Every structure is written in C-alpha cells, then in structure tokens.
Amino acid sequence: MTEASYEQVATTREQSVIERTVNKHMSDIKSIVFAGFWVRFLSYIIDILALAGFKGIVLSPLFALTQIKNEYLFVPYFSVGNIISALIFYLYFVLMTYYFKATLGKMILGLSVYREDAKSLKLKDVLFREWIGRIISGALLGIPYLVVAFNKKHKGIHDYFGETVVLKNKYIQLRNDFQKATR
Q1: Potential cystine with 106: which of 14, 53, 111, 169 (Cβ 3.0-4.6 Å)?
Q2: Neighbouring C-alpha atoms within 13 Å toward the C-beta of 30
Q3: What residues have CB less than 8 Å from 13, skipping those under 6 apart?
Q4: Which residues belong to any copy of the RDD domain (predicted)?
C-alpha cells in the first residue's frame, strides 16, 4: 500500500469511530442541542411582552386618536383593533423568523429556528410554522404546544408543519465543525 492509501484508510477509520460514537450518544446530543419546552415557553412569553409593549406604545395612542378601534365588520370580533393586532402578531413571528431565524425572545435566550434538512429557511416553511401552525395551535387552546415536551427533538406541531427545529445557538458551531470533520 502506498502512503496515500494508508492515510485514506486511517481517515476512513477515524470517520467510522466518530460516526459510531455519535450514533451511540445521539439521544444525549439531541437533548443538549434542541431547545426544550421551558426555554421555548419563556421565549414566547418574552415575545408576547414585546408585542404588548408595542401595542401599548404605538397602537393604543393611534387608536385613541383615530377612534377606529371599535369599528367592526359584521360582528364585534372582527373589529379593526382585533384585526390589526392579529396582523401584527403574525407578521412579527413570520418576518422575524424568516429574516433573523429567531424572534426577540429566541434571540435573548440564544435559540434559532432551522429547517430539519439544515438548508436555509424558505418563506413557505416559515409561513407553515408561524402562521398556519400557530392558528391551529391557538384554535386548540395551545395544547399542541405541549408536544414539545414529549419528543426527542422537542418539536411542536407547528414545527412539524414547517419541517423545522429550534436549536441552541451555542451548539450550532459545534454541529458545523462536526459536519466539516466528517466530510
């Protein structure tokens, strides 16, 4: 055997050892890398507080000046105030996730949203996750969010719709380094 083929065999063996070790400890790695229920819940609380602050500082004075808040279409549920609040709520989550991979709450807690296949987030993924998934979860009184606590990747129903996962940022570089090493 030539020296190059010895190096190739050694590299193949090293990769094999790394892959066996990773596979052996995959559940431990998943519990470390994926953001769990409580940190995601706290992130959501931070986002709701940020939206409430925006509503109090910007929308409330605007509604007070224009007297348009209580105007409605057909039924009081479809008031201008409710429609604008809903638009801001969904736009906040969709746009922040699409452009920054995280909302303010996720940024503060060091979390980011990624596609499961590790490719860049597409608008379709974000819309299914942040809009359709949130509407369905909200219609079911938030119960689908509890799914996050009971699976290995800590995915919620909205993550399944968008084919996304929420990862802890401090482990993203470790994952990227590992992928480079195994190539």
Answers
A1: 111
A2: 12
A3: none
A4: 35-162
